[in-house]
Design brief:
The protein is α/β, with parallel strands linked by helices. It has two domains: 3-92, Chemotaxis Receptor Methyltransferase Cher, domain 1 (Orthogonal Bundle); 104-294, Rossmann fold (3-Layer(aba) Sandwich). The protein has helices at residues 3-14, 29-43, 52-66, 71-80, 82-92, 104-118, 139-151, 169-177, 212-215, 249-262, and strands at residues 127-133, 159-166, 179-180, 196-198, 208-210, 218-222, 235-240, 263-271, 284-288, 291-294. The strands form two sheets. The chain has a seven-stranded mixed β-sheet with strand order 6-2-1-7-8-10-9. The chain is globular. The model is unreliable at 8-18 (pLDDT under 50). The structure holds S-adenosylmethionine.
Length: 296
């Protein structure tokens, strides 16, 4: 055996397989399957077997918070306390996001959606609607707002609104506060930094917050995408990025149909980088990277 192979063999015997790692809480197959079922039924989130450790780690936090010693106890509690379902969904959802994530979408939005629609009515009075569906902690809607403010400095003469929704009430709370550590702004181009000012929240001197020019454009709401949507108006643009990746194909296809119905003719749907549709869709034309325009 070579020295490299000997070292590899030693490491392999020293590191136990994941399933052998002693766990703080008993976590059976039945526990896993039952939580997978709840996530699918109530949030549309599809969790494969490979997500077993993720489910354990995220839900274990709820067990600690509630003082339970097993997942079986937690499942009984969940069955008897409908309020806990919200905390369970909050725990299970993946909220990774950042300002100007997939920046090409915002350049397209600025030059192909905002400018043609709102510059066409220079005297104001235009109605412009954007939906950030699955907005997480708010970086996406604040990015949209910053792009809008800079492109249309006199934006107040138009009726501009950004609806920002998520199923997770914890992230929505953070989004509404709009306060972020300085490091979160590394991805914000210099020309947009003026919209973020020192938070003065007494927690960290370098924290920044989205200023009123951005906040005043956004309404944060809880909305579960797989349930009926409580609005009829149509949007100039919908951003639903890195959300459908957690859904199964049938849920994804159904959502895309509903998004098409909610986009104005000529409006644009932005989806995440790994979510491109398989094949074309009759209602949508690919006009850029993961960027689709609804037919007029
Ligand atoms: C990874 S984040 C994406 C954030 C942002 N759109 C981005 O691309 O940076 C996915 C978000 O989708 C939300 N989500 C998951 N299932 C949902 C559902 N059924 N309805 C609404 N939001 C959901 C999660 O809570 C999470 O905040």
């Amino acid at each position: 055996m070579t020295r490299h192979a000997q070292r590899a063999a030693a490491v392999a015997t020293a590191v136990p397989a994941v399933s052998d790692v002693p766990r703080e809480f008993a976590f059976s197959d039945a526990d896993f399957r039952s939580l997978v079922h709840l996530a699918r039924e109530h949030a549309g989130i599809a969790l494969s077997d490979s997500k077993r450790n993720l489910v354990y780690t995220r839900v274990a936090r709820r067990l600690r918070a509630l003082g339970f010693t097993s997942f079986k106890q937690y499942r009984s509690y969940l069955a008897e306390n409908s309020d806990e379902l919200e905390s369970f969904i909050n725990a299970i959802s993946t909220n990774l996001t950042k300002f100007f994530r997939e920046a090409h979408h915002f350049e397209h939005f600025r030059s192909h959606v905002v400018a043609p629609v709102l510059h066409a009515i220079p005297r104001g009075g235009g109605r412009f609607r954007v939906w950030s569906a699955g907005c997480s902690t708010g970086e996406e809607p604040y990015t949209i707002a910053a792009v809008l403010r800079r492109e249309i400095p006199g934006g107040c003469r138009h009726d501009i609104r950004i609806l920002a929704t998520d199923i997770d009430t914890d992230v929505l709370g953070k989004a509404a506060r709009g306060i972020y550590p300085a490091s979160a702004f590394d991805s914000v181009p210099t020309i947009y930094r003026e919209y973020f000012t020192p938070a003065g929240d007494g927690l960290n001197d370098s924290n920044l917050m989205a200023d009123e020019r951005l906040r005043s454009l956004i309404a944060f709401r809880r909305l579960n995408l797989i349930e009926p949507w409580p609005f009829r108006g149509k949007f100039d643009a919908i951003f639903c990025r890195n959300v459908m990746i957690y859904f199964d194909n049938a849920t994804k296809a159904e959502l895309i149909e509903r998004f098409i119905q909610s986009i104005k003719p000529g409006g644009v749907l932005y989806i995440g980088h790994s979510e491109s549709f398989h094949g074309s869709h009759p209602g949508l034309k690919l006009v850029g990277r993961t960027t689709y325009r609804r037919g007029a």
